[in-house]
Amino acid sequence: MTPEQVIAVFRSGAASxxxxxALITIALALLAFALVGRVFANAAxxxxxxxxxxxxxxxxxxxxxxxxxxxxxxLQYVSSALEYIVPIPxxxxxxxxxxxxxxxxxxALALLAIAIAVFAIPxxxxxxxxxxxxxxxxxxxxxxxxxxxLNLILGTDDNATDWRVVRWGSAVFVLFVLNEHFGYRxxxxxxxxxxxxxxxxxxxxxxVRSQVRLGSVESELAxxxxxxxxxxxxxxxxxxxxxxxxxxxxxxxxxxxFYDFLVVDDDHFGVLVADVSGHGVPAALVxxxxxxxxxxxxxxxxxxxxxxxxxxxxxxxxxxxxHITAAxxxxxxxxSAVVASAGHPPPLIRRASGAVEEVPTQxxxxxxxxxxxxxxxxxxxxxxxxxxxxxxxxTEALSxxxxxxxxxxxREALSSGADVDAIAxxxxxWSGGQLSDDVTFVRANxx
Length: 447
Fold this sequence. Notes:
Number of helices: 14
Largest sheet: 5 strands, antiparallel
Number of domains: 2
Radius of gyration: 34 Å
Structural class: alpha+beta
């Protein structure tokens, strides 16, 4: 070829190649957006990115000047393979993004496109006949167009306003595709750019709205956390002869764990530690309700089983798919105590000698079943002994490898003389800095 002919070839394919490179760039950006952004990491976006990228590669491979830059007969097989592969993400995009009323039809087209690609590509390579089975995929394209239009007419199960722009862009793309097959060739790429642009515009609109919504949610969660932290005692009560230490570490912005005290006088007090099932705001709301409920139980503060039975009666039938585990202890400055549990991890006694004992409490969870059972268990603490009540976020904390911290490690830590703050830090380190559940400790040590 003469230099003038080469220049003419490059000029004739420059526009389509430029569009192809732009589509590949857009596809990579969409893929990064889908994989990094939690909001848009969905099947429809991945299918759109794959469709745009493969379509762009097809434009570059089919550009008139590509054979001048890349030598070898394998280029024909790549071009042929793309003819079979490009329709696959297109059919998947329709399946994921549009109405579910045509779910079976959309699935059938996607499976047909995949089956043809799986069969045709190896067949053409084995028989050395690129494009031999292209009429098969052309048939899929012909079938796809009316189905695509019907999906556009029926709409989507997602936000109608968001998808209105996409539907118009898709309709324009369909017109350009039909023109490619029945009118002037070389215009389909323009329609595809319009389609991709409409999809990106929709995503941008969603992104702005989602960021506003996310900011509002984060602000509300921060407020909820402040409110919740305000109902947790800032400092333990002062009781003669007893030192009280606490740890309260939510795993998220708000927690389902709760603890509080009922101070009877300078020598007697009660402590409740509770864990609401579930996580997030629903659990935190129930935990906040416990604050009010406990404040009404001063008349039975000396009887743990009766207090827990009253809480069960208050919450029974008011929680949907939730329950509460709790342990309540009533302690005196002379070291005598009474403990009861409602499905909660048994409290532990750490003796002055370093021995660790389990308080044999039994009881059903609160607010779950009609009947409730709990029993008072008397305990005697000597000087240097401690009563430790905790939530299962301590023993069930998971390591990055999925191993639980376990009760044995808790017993060893208590036996070694570690305080509750040190134990909580050990649990957090075990979890790799990311707790899977709230961690709460209350330790009462007899002087």
